[in-house]
Structures are given as structure tokens and as C-alpha cells.
């Protein structure tokens, strides 16, 4: 008994040291970023790491603002794309899942197999064809081209179907029919509310993925008016900011702040969502 | 009764139309179009395949594919992609497994688990572009935070130009990937371990198995499917790695040290001489490789219970028909 306790203490010390070390590793880079956003370039050049903020935030903001970095515009564009793309994904994925679960049609099994098969098609790799297609119809720089593709999200359809199978009883659908409800009405008024928990989890992930997406916007959006947050960020690397360290850190912080807010408000659901999404194999 | 069911069946088709239409336009067509462009002479900004001289290269159909496969940068990019993915994946899974085993252990509960999980997963949701530039400034020369730490701790006499070394450049990109994804893998493994019946763990404990033995003989074998799942998903994502290597170092670092295939494709098509055809050929090569990996995943994830059930139903139908036939024959005779 005694020996067991002692090994246990050693084990616990090891575990806590490891966990605290990893926690610091996760937080430290962002902490330095936020603190440096408030420090002047001279201060950063003397000592690039400081744990305490300074008072040059406004100064950095002025420099950042003066050089084509427009965080408000970037924020709005990213917001428009992320919100509408998320809405499209969750609504149409649920609709498709409903079509597969509720109705017994001839090609149902084949269609579901097809969805499973296309789930992992790498979208990014075929960007050349996508770009050429969009270019030909003159819709580059149109935000719709980043929103509408979200209608087809095979992985989300798969998730929604798995969730719907036990959650939605066909008897409810049947009794609504007897009450004279139309099929589309039943989906919107009965199925969607039942699916709320699944929709919430998937919406968070869809939003974050769209918000962080760089490749497609970088290819399609050439007009500075339409730049999204990640494209704005990539501008910070350019020569015009070479020596303005404080404002680079401020720009980076601005892109991350909305994500921090979302994450710390919803972290519980996000982590539950990751766990849920993985238990399908 | 049967009549009624049939009349509802058409809604199944209706409800799946938006998905199908969007899929045809935004997924299937681009795939086919990319494939076609791979066989054409399409290059130059603002050109399309219907422009003169941009059509299919009938004389030497596979010219672009040959050019890409013998291209030095593509070969480097291909090697880099696998290498960077590999150096990130192995430690990522090992650490994730260790943490998952620690957090699910029933022998000693770790305090602050919720906090640790939230913090470990955090880098995963932060914009990769931001993280790439943040780390680029950390390794800045002569006065970045890393140099500040090194000189303050007395590890180096003067500032070091970290990213001039090929190994360091690759290593840092792999580290960023590792750092962004181990929290995700950890959560996936935790949910996998929680899915294992607690009885097995209890039995092992009663039999006097140590933590390590329990991990090797109970946890690992039961996590096989989930580990395979994360291997394949990570591979599919890793082979398309773009944001971090593209933004981390200007021009992919010394000797293209951090050039990946996605960066190669982007650089071919959207900078320099706008070689859409070569980029498309490189895309299709990567596309086929990734699809092959996906096929493995698809095979692993197929709904085994349902396949079995379907078989049984079919079998019963057959037997039922046979019986009917026999009865009919019997009646006639």
C-alpha cells in the first residue's frame, strides 16, 4: 500500500509538470502577441519578449491603419462569408439527411453510399478548375462563389444522418401528416428543432473553418475590397511592415480576437463536438 | 398502404436535389475541368482553354504530367510534404495517446482536466495564416522573441538566423502542425477510450496490471480503428498543407526547404508565368494519391452492421420467394 502511494506521487508530479508545460506552450505565443501589440517597435527591438503590456496600442493602430490593412473591412467580408456559408451548410445538410432518413426511395442506399464516397474528396487540390470555371463566368471577386459551395458538405450530411436516425421518430412525422402538414413544413417546423444540438455543433466548426480559410479566397478574391481576414493577415508579411513590429502584432491580434471570444464562450460544446464527430468509425 | 408510401418517396428525391446540384457544379465539374486543363497548353494570366493556342495538346497528351514529374521543385515539394507530415504526425499521436491515457485513467483523477483540454485544443481553431506569421516573427532575425530568449538564457552569444537552416525551417513548420493538432488527436483518442467497456479495464486492474501494461495490452488494441481513422484524415489534410508553409518563410525558405505540393500548385498557377496547365497536372497527381488514401478510409468506415443487415434482408427475401415458388409449384401439382 505504502509503495503504491509513493509511485503514485511521482506519477502525479510528472503528469502535472507535463500538463502545465503544454499549457504554457499553448498560451505563451498568444500572450507575447497580445502584449507586443501594445509595445513600440523600439521596445520590441530591445527585448522582444515581455510579459507586461506597454502603452503604444494607439500608436500601433495608427501605423497599421495607415497602410492598407483594413481590419474592419476584412472582418465584415469574413463575417459575411462565414455566416452565410455556415447557414447554407447546416440547412442543406440537414435537409439532405432528412431526405435519406425519412423517405424510402429507390436510390436511397446508393445515394448514401455516394455521399460516403465523396466525403473525403480533397477540394483544395482542384482549385485550378474551380478558378477557371468561376473566371469564365466572370464571378471572381464575388463572395457568393465562396458561400454557395457550402451547400454540399458530405461529411456534415453524414454526421446529421447519424444524429437523426435515433433522434427523429418517424411516428412524429406520420402524425404531423395526419394533421395535414406538408412535407416541407414538417421538416422546417418539426425536424429542424429536434436537430438543434447537432446543428449547433456543426455550425461552430463550419464557421471556424470558413473564417480560417485562406486558399480559396486567396485564389478568387483579387480586389482589395473583398479581402478576408486571413488574406489581410498575409499582407502583414509584406515589405511595408518590415520594421513596424508593434503594428504587425496588433494586426495578428485583431484577426484572432473574434476566435478567442467564440472559443472561450463555446469551448465546452466545441470539445464535445470534436469527441462526437470522431466516434463514427 | 403501399400506394401511400410510394407517393411520399418522391420527396426523398426533392430533398436531395440542392445537395446534388451544388455537388455537380462546385465539386465534380472543377475536378473534371482540372483534369482537362492538365492536358492543355493553358497558361498566362486571364486565359481560358477556349483561347487560341490554349487547347488540348494532342501531339503530346501527357506533356504537362511529364514536365511536372521530372520537375526538381515538384520532387522537392513532394518529399517535403511527406517529410513534414511525418515529423509532425508521429510525435503528435504519441503525445495525444499519452495525454488521453492520463486523462481517462480511473486510478488517479487529474485536477483541472477541463482547463487543460480547452487550452491544448485552442491552437487548432486559430487561423493558420495568423499562426504562420506569428511564428515567423518569433524566429525573426536579428531581434525576434526566440533570439531574445536564447541570449537572455545565455544559450547563444549573438543573434542566430534560425530560418537560414533548412532543418530548422522544416522542423519549425512541422512543429507548428504538431502544436496545432495534438490537442485534436487527444480529444479524439479520449472519446475512443471512453467508448471501451470499463469492465475490461477493471479486469486488468484486478489482475494486477500496471498502468503501462494496461495501456499496451488493453487501451492500444481497442483504439486501433480510431487510430487508423486519424492516420488517414491527418494524411489527407497533411498532403494539402498550404497556409503555414506558404506564409511562414518568404519563397519557401532556403533551397525550397518548406515548399509543399499545395504551395507548388499555387505558385505555378497564380504567380510568375501562370502555368495553369502544369499546376493542374500536379493537382491531378495529388488528387489521385489522396483519393487512394480516402478509399482506404472509406473501406474502414463502412457501416459493417448495416452491410450485414442488408445481406440478411436480401437472403430472407430470396428464401421467401423460393417458398412462394415452391408453394405455387405445389399448388399446381
Which geometry of chain B do the CA atoms define? flat
Q: How much helical structure, as a percent, in the residues of chain B?
A: over 70%
Oligomer: heterodimer
The greatest interface between two protein chains, and residues involved on each side, is: A-B, 100 and 109 residues
How big a fraction of the residues of chain A is strand? under 5%
Key features?
heterodimer, A: 281 residues, mainly alpha, MetI-like fold, 14 helices, 73% helix, 0% strand, disordered N terminus, B: 14 helices
Description:
The complex is a heterodimer of chains A (281) and B (333). Helix content of chain A is 73%, strand content 0%. Chain A has 281 residues and is mostly helical. Chain A folds into two domains: 2-56; 70-235, MetI-like (MetI-like fold, Orthogonal Bundle), CATH 1.10.3720.10. Mean pLDDT of chain A is 87; it is low at 1-6. In chain B, helix 1 (2-37) packs antiparallel against helix 13, helix 3 runs antiparallel to helix 10 and helix 3 packs across helix 12 (261-270). The longest helix of chain B is centred in the first third of the chain and has 36 residues, at 2-37. At the A-B interface, helix 1, helix 2, helix 4, helix 5 and helix 6 of A face helix 1, helix 4, helix 5, helix 6 and helix 7 of B.
Q: How would you concisely characterize the structure shown here?
A:
Chain A has 281 residues and is an all-alpha fold. Chain A has helices spanning 2-36, 41-46, 57-65, 71-102, 108-118, 127-136, 144-147, 154-167, 170-178, 183-194, 196-212, 215-220, 229-235, 245-278. Chain A has two domains: 2-56; 70-235, Orthogonal Bundle (MetI-like fold), CATH 1.10.3720.
